[in-house]
Amino acid sequence: MSMKDQARAREGHIEFRRGLTFRSLMLILILELLFLPVTVYTNLVTGISILVSAAAIVPLITSLIASMYGIAFSVQEVFMIYAVLKAVITFVPPYYWLVYRSFFVKFPFLRIFRLGGVSIQELVPTWITPPPSSPVHFYRTLLHPQWLASIGVITTMTLLIFGADLVLAIIFAYLFIEIERLPFPFARVDASLVTTLVREEEERAKLFYIALFAGILLSAVVYVPHMLGTPLIPLPWADFTIVTQYVLPGALIALATDPSLFVGGFVLSPTITLLMFLGSAIVWIIGNNVLVTYFKEVAPEWASEYYIGMCATSIYQRSFLRVWIAFQLGTMVGFPLIMTLIYGRELIRAIRSLSRLSEHRGLSYVPHFKLVLLLYPIFSLASVALFHMLVPDYPILVSIPVSLGLSFLISFLVGRTVAEIGITPTFTWPWQAITYMTRYEGVAGWIFAPYISVGGNALHINSIMVAYLTETRISDYVKGVTIGFILSLILGLIFMDLFWRLAPIPSAAYPYTIVLWPTLAMNDALFITRKITIRSGVFSAGILIGALLPALEVLLRRRDIRAFSGIAIMMGFFLLPPYTLALFIGSCVGNFLIRRAMGRERWINLRDTIVAGFFAGSSVAIGMGIAATMIAKATWIWPW
Asked: Are 442 and 397 contacting, i.e. CB atoms less than 8 angstroms apart?
């Protein structure tokens, strides 16, 4: 849509068309069935879902299906399928955490953690997970009456969180599109992608099928043997610390072995992936090393616990608990503080604009905008009410301002960052750090929380702008993403239950859970018993760096210097080197080697097709692996 068309749209001269139709809904369901199991499985195996990197998966498959069956999808229908699937196929179902809580109450190392002389595992409420003595933990299924309360609570809270995020997205999209008219650089890329792929191209289809078969072959070699219990390639990474430990003791040096990470890097900028790897290396390689060699007094627990021969998994677990959790919490404080200072005037202007809403005509997608404004406090306060009904001893003077105020602030900052520069900052869950500052004594209040935004509405804000550019009714997007989200909850429960039935979690069948879950469990236990040490020096360093990096990026961008991304470096702080290195390698291979072989213009036009085909092939391979595993289990007398 040109600038002239955008002006006409604001005046109401362009008719926004329907994107939510019966056939678009059917295709959304089919594609969710195809890709959601991949999301769940890759999170269990590698701990990261990069399906969102394959931006062309949904519109491309839609266009291919259309060409095969002679169906003519409109641009609006393709956008609807694309936007809804982009929002839900990277969504890890909340029932993942029910299986984790089952592990938490049975993890033997947590028996030493007590409150009032009672094991914290015995104090976990039954609405979070059945008691440790329940035999349901050995059945390895969520479809059991003892899980009903837990499923009901987590589903209700998840729907309230989704509703609050979506409402904030509608509010801030109105502000950033209609009032401030920010550029949304990546929304324009997405709009171009959707409109381009509606056209059938023979070369694109050919490349898709080649990549499809490559994805089936490589993913079958990597994933299927793991599912069957005879791995050929180590997952989630190849550990090189045994080689580097004498030169760089304490450094976490490994390389991810999931081929999807390398291929996903094809569509990412080498500059961004390099900066992400740099941020990751600063923390997990350089930081870990200097803290066990030169500055032992900064983190004495980590320095004393490290030993020659420690594997990458143990290095991550120990250094995170002893050092980097405080640093990450600090960056989470520093980032919103500096962004509030930078965008303080814009925030005040935005609030004033909302208070004078009747002066603005607004877009056609918000005919009852004042009602939308009321929905945010309704969803937020409903989540607080549910939380306090279940955790009555938590201080309500903390939960209300955090859910209402902090969430609004974080959503504004993240949404504006996406609208201006296109990058979504990464926030980790801040609730435990907030609870640490209170006098709360209990268990449930540490591991269950009301609505807190961590920037999840940024994707919706960007998609609303894409809908605007493709002349799609935004009300259709709101309805479509809501339907798609509810479908993802239903399918997520089914697939999470299926993977748990196939093998214990954590286990070698899902290797990343062996890395992550013990660390999460120890982290929860240390917070609950207040035995975790948040060193002021490390925390302060995190605040300082979390403030300086985004501020430097904003200042450089205002001078039209766009090569530096402080937010990308910050994202690297939260990701491990095996993953950022794999993304960087894939980005370099795609943007330098393959681009040189194919030609720059041809590569830019077709790289999304290659990535889309590879991910579709991975989906097929994982489906074949699931089928093979179920057949193998059918002839095995033991329940694993």
From this structure: no
Render pLDDT for 615-634 as a digit per residue (tens, 0 to 9). 777 777 776 776 676 566 55
Q: Which residues are within 8 A (CB) of 410 and not within 5 positions of it... i.e. 6 or more apart?
A: 336, 427, 453, 454, 455
Length of the chain: 640
CB atoms inside a 10 Å sphere around CB 6:
15
CB distance 243 to 309 below 8 Å? no
d(CA 67, CA 32): 21
* Residue reference for tokens 């809403």: 357
Burial label for 635, CB within 10 Å (0-12, 13-18, 19+), is exposed
Three-state secondary structure along 609-627? HHHHHHHHHHHHHHHHHHH
What are the tens digits of pLDDT across the range 17-54? Answer: 888 888 888 888 888 887 788 778 878 877 665 544 44
SS (H, E, C) 365-407: CCCCHHHHHHHHHHHHHHHHHHHHHHCCCCCHHHHHHHHHHHH
Q: What is the 3-state secondary structure (H, E, C) of 238-297?
A: EECHHHHCCCCCCCCCEEECCHHHHHHHHHCCHHHHHHHHHHHHHHHHHHHHHHHHCCCC
Residues contacting 74, CB < 8 A, separation 6+: 17, 19, 198
Distance CA 95, CA 485 (A): 14
Tally helices (H) and strands (E) across the chain: 30, 4
Q: Please provide the DSSP assignment of 53-121 as one string.
A: G-TTHHHHHHHHHHHHHT----HHHHHHHHHHHHHHTTPPPTHHHHHHHHHHHH-GGGGG-EETTEETT
Q: Evaluate whether 525 touches 532 at the Cβ level (below 8 Å).
A: no
Give yes or no for a contact between 410 and 397, defined as CB atoms under 8 angstroms apart.
Answer: no
- What residues pair up with 17 in beta bridges, in sequence order? 472
Q: Taking the CA of residue 558 as centre, how many other CA atoms within 13 Å lie in the half-sphere pointing to its CB?
A: 7
Helices (H), 503-594: 511-528, 536-558, 566-573, 577-588
Q: Give the three-state DSSP class for 17.
A: strand
What mean pLDDT is reported for the chain?
Answer: 81
pTM listed for this prediction: 0.75
Query: Closest Cα to residue 72, out of 5, 24, 15, 125?
Result: 24
DSSP 320: I
User: Which SS3 state, helix, strand or coil, does residue 426 take?
Assistant: coil
